[in-house]
Write a structure and sequence with these properties.
Elements lengths: L1 E10 L7 E5 L5 E7 L5 E7 L2 E8 L2 E3 L9 E15 L9 E14 L6 E9 L2 E8 L7 E7 L2 E4 L4 E4 L12 E4 L3 H8 L13 E2 L3 E4 L5 E7 L7 E6 L4 E6 L8 E4 L2 E2 L2 E7 L2 H6 L2 H4 L15 E6 L1 H4 L33 H14 L3 E4 L29 H10 L3 E7 L4 H17 L2 E7 L14 H16 L3 E5 L14 E4 L17 H4 L36 H10 L4 E3 L4 H4 L3 H9 L4 E10 L3 E8 L4 E8 L4 E6 L9 E8 L12 E8 L4 E6 L4 E8 L3
Parallel strand pairs: 23-24, 23-29, 24-25, 25-26, 26-27, 27-28
Antiparallel strand pairs: 1-7, 2-3, 3-4, 4-5, 5-12, 6-11, 7-8, 8-9, 9-10, 10-21, 10-22, 11-20, 12-19, 13-14, 13-16, 15-18, 16-17, 17-22, 18-19, 30-31, 31-32, 32-37, 33-36, 34-35, 34-37
Helix pairs in contact: 5-6, 7-8
InterPro entries: Aldolase_TIM, GH, GH-type_carb-bd, GH97_C, GH97_catalytic, GH97_N, Glycosyl_hydrolase_97
Subunit structure: Monomer.
Protein name: Glycoside hydrolase family 97 protein
Length: 703
């Protein structure tokens, strides 16, 4: 890792200048910080002389001590320049450059003698990060946040890709509208969910993606969310000002802090090119380096699993059809099996055989443990113990069988929102994994949180999610958390956090379907903070083939499902469909087998949020490339310029594309596979069907 760091500062006198300016290393972004006549901290941000954030207030309103809102004077200013190149444990790039100019302002309040705070700004070529810092001091120790008063004053009525503001879920369809239209569209945007709590007719979630009328792409989110509540945004739709709105706890407080401490970074990624938004690594750069000395046990995972058949209703998680069970009291050996329980030894062995045959790393099994009969919606505290299997699931036998096939088993821990119960069993559950050869876990938090009244995105729950990850590291276990808080780049610091859900995934294709533009938006929103376990690869697009009572269908073509392995980045990728379906399409399945899940290089070839994305990636440590292109509900031609390939070399490209008659509604399984020789000078125009796409695998031709 190379690193450059320089610092200079100015000690304040009574005549300290109250306005400060810094620019990004490339000079395109300019930040101005100032303090008003009333002592209110403010900032503004411009990109190539265009307003990104107009003059906006900063501050923290507190409940038990004087608030950090006004009456400030600048007492110290420090300017830093930092430049390093670091290597992620896994990721889209082999190395990442972390280069910024920093302004650190110390502010004192006249109304509270000897009390001060700091606001730290970092300006990168791709955006701005800033946070509040509360140093240890005599006049500040413990305090309660009533609300954070950070503003993002926008320059106009931007086109916006938004989700309803909610303290419990991100599993909504993205709405595309102008800011001024949010209030009118909110009611229809709030669709039913297992747990939800909206807060405002103009409340929206982060990451929030916008496009201005003068061509700026603006993304607002947060980085390094630790010991703090997740931030939503409430829009003042008369003035186009976004105001921070923190997730409360059960009694309405927004956070309990103890100095020294700091807020998460508030982030604004900006460019006049959509491709540069997707290429930004600023949120990762605002997180600390990994806390682990040994990361050799953290490895990307490609897996199959006993899952989609339950999601579609073909099979069940539960062993029987009882409506009330008690762990430790219900004798499952004396109950009547329902005949639909998927997590049985013989069936799981079929998945292990399939994984072994096709070179997959692991097999996920859901519904293996006692308690699934009444797990949801009962506000049940002692809902699972995470170690007791159903009578038809032989843990030891499956461990032995999987090991003989060189396949790992992937654990599933559904908590049903009972966080207290999970923490009570966590050490025992993780040790059970170690004893039985499980190296990764998919955890779930479906339903309302217990303790009752807490929310999924509050400070208390956020601390739990991180506790689960760090505790898992003690056992060398990787974590894929579903229904947890949206990622904020913490996978840099804790790289065993290899996956999250925190958005509508493929499962919703069985619950009525995702919009055709869904995956053309997610990389600009949800994926800004970290990878998503989206679970692509569904080839049987009519769900009623598996379950005659479910008439949902997959809102993509089969070729687009292949492309998602490239466009929806994750070091954790599932082939989510059933083995018997893949066996009918082994030619297309070959791409899923071949595609890498860890990368040396990534090039965003073209992109427009809500419309299309085309990405090329080079496999880690190999001279192999993979390209994915997707479109929304409109037919489109994807443009691939192969100039990312080494000059003077010839490659063979295998193109998996929509058939000429493909259509995501009427003919989604129409695809064609063709081969062609390509060089760095080759240019390809590839047609895509409605909600279609294409995937390309590229290998150098050996001489």
């Amino acid at each position: 890792m190379s690193k450059f760091f320089s610092t200079f500062f100015v000690l304040a006198a009574c005549f300290m200048v109250q306005a400060q300016e810094i620019s990004s290393p490339d000079k395109n972004l300019k930040l101005k910080f100032s303090v008003t006549g009333n002592g209110v901290p403010t900032y503004e941000l411009n990109y190539k002389n265009k307003a990104v954030i107009k003059n906006s207030k900063l501050g923290i309103e507190t409940k038990d001590v004087p608030s950090f809102l006004e009456g400030f004077t600048v007492t110290k200013v420090e300017n830093n320049t930092f430049d390093e190149t670091w290597t992620p444990v896994w990721g889209e790039q082999k190395t990442i450059r972390n280069n910024y100019n920093e302004l650190l302002v110390t502010l004192s309040q006249k109304s509270v003698k000897d009390r001060f705070i700091r606001i730290r700004f970092r300006v990168f070529n791709d955006g701005l990060g800033f946070r509040y810092e509360f140093p240890e001091q005599k006049e500040l120790s413990y305090f309660i946040i009533k609300e954070e008063r950070t503003q993002f004053a926008l320059a106009g009525d931007h086109k916006t890709f938004w989700l309803p503001g909610d303290f419990d879920t991100q599993e909504y369809s993205t709405v595309t509208s102008n800011l001024s239209e949010i209030r009118g569209k909110m009611k229809d945007a709030v669709t039913p969910n297992a747990s939800q709590q909206t807060f405002s007719d103009t409340g929206v979630q982060t990451p929030l993606m916008m496009k201005s009328k003068d061509g700026l792409y603006i993304n607002i989110h947060e980085a390094a969310l630790v010991d703090y509540s997740a931030m939503s945004l409430e829009l003042d739709d008369k003035n186009f000002i976004l105001n921070s709105f923190l997730t409360p706890d059960a009694i309405g407080d927004k956070g309990y802090l103890q100095a020294p401490t700091q807020s998460p970074w508030r982030t604004v990624v900006v460019s006049d090119k959509a491709t540069e938004i997707l290429a930004s690594k600023m949120i990762l750069n605002l997180n600390e380096p990994t806390k682990y000395k040994d990361v050799s046990w953290i490895k990307p995972v490609k897996y199959v699993g006993v899952w989609w058949e339950m999601i579609t209703g073909k099979s069940s998680w539960a062993y029987n059809d009882l409506t009330s069970v008690k762990l430790g009291e219900t004798d499952y050996s004396k109950t009547k099996p329902n005949g639909k329980h998927a997590a049985n030894t013989a069936h799981v062995k079929e998945y292990i055989d399939f994984a072994s045959q096709h070179g997959f790393d692991a097999v996920l099994v859901e519904g293996w443990n006692e308690g699934w009969e009444d797990w949801f919606g009962k506000s049940k505290d002692y809902v699972f113990d995470f170690v007791t299997p159903y009578p038809d699931f032989d843990v030891k036998e499956l461990h032995k069988y999987a090991a003989s096939k060189n396949v790992k088993m992937m654990m599933h821990h559904e908590t049903s929102g009972s966080i207290r119960n999970y923490e009570r069993h966590m050490d025992k559950a993780y040790q059970f994994m170690v004893d039985n050869g499980y190296t990764s876990v998919k955890s779930g938090y479906v339903g309302d949180i217990i303790p009752r009244g807490e929310y999924h995105y509050g400070q208390w729950a956020n601390n739990h999610y991180l506790y689960a990850v760090t505790k898992a590291a003690d056992y060398k276990i990787m974590v894929n958390a579903h229904e947890a808080v949206r990622p904020t780049g913490l996978s840099r610091t804790y790289p065993n956090l290899i996956g999250n859900e925190a958005a509508r995934g493929t499962e919703y294709e069985s619950f009525g379907g995702n919009n055709a533009d869904h995956t053309t938006i997610l990389p600009f929103t949800r994926l800004m903070g970290g990878p998503m376990d989206y679970t692509p690869g569904i080839f049987q697009t009519k769900v009623n083939v598996y379950n005659p009572d479910n008439n949902s269908f997959i809102h993509t073509t089969l070729a687009k499902q292949l492309a998602l392995y490239v466009t929806m980045y994750s070091p954790l990728q599932m082939a989510a469909d059933l083995p018997e379906t893949y066996n009918k399409h082994l030619d297309a399945f070959q791409f899923i087998k071949d595609v890498a899940i860890d990368w040396d290089e990534t090039y965003i070839l073209e992109a427009e949020p809500g419309d299309y994305i085309t990405i090329a990636r080079k496999a880690k440590g190999k001279n192999e490339w993979f390209v994915g292109g997707i479109t929304d509900e409109n037919k489109r031609v994807g443009n691939v310029n192969f100039d990312f390939l080494s000059k003077g070399k010839t490659y063979e490209a295998i193109i998996y594309a929509d058939g000429k008659d493909a259509d995501y509604i009427n003919n989604p399984q129409s695809y064609e596979i063709k081969k062609m020789k390509v060089t760095s000078k080759t240019k390809l125009k590839q047609p895509m069907a409605t909600s279609g796409g294409f995937a390309i695998s590229i290998k150098e031709v050996s001489k």
